Every structure is written in C-alpha cells, then in structure tokens.
Predict the 3D structure of the following.
Amino acid sequence: MVGRPRAQSEVIGIVLLTAVIVVLVSVAGAIVLSERFEEDDDPLVSVESNATVDRVRIDHT
C-alpha cells in the first residue's frame, strides 16, 4: 500500500470544482441576461409634428 499512488481524490476534487464553476457561471449569465432584456414601458422620445403646404415642423421633448 505504501508504494502505490492514489489519484482518485484529486480527480474527484477537480470534477467537483469544475461543476461548481459551471453552475456559478450559468447562474450569473442567466441573471445578467434576464435583466438586460427587461423592457421598460416608458417612451424613449415624445414627438409632435405639424405640416403645412410649404413647411413641416417636428418638435421633440
């Protein structure tokens, strides 16, 4: 038993650490993407227009 190397615990540690990192990155990505695609109902611009025979007037506020 003394001369035989055992690498099972090292492999299991690497697999578990990789799984934790994948889960954390997935959760962070889902949070970022869900906040980015939320739409606001507020208008971005308010435009008023007035047209006559020789003129077009557009006002924005």
Observations:
- The first helix runs from residue 8 to 36.
- The longest strand covers residues 47-51.
- The beta strands are 47-51, 56-60.
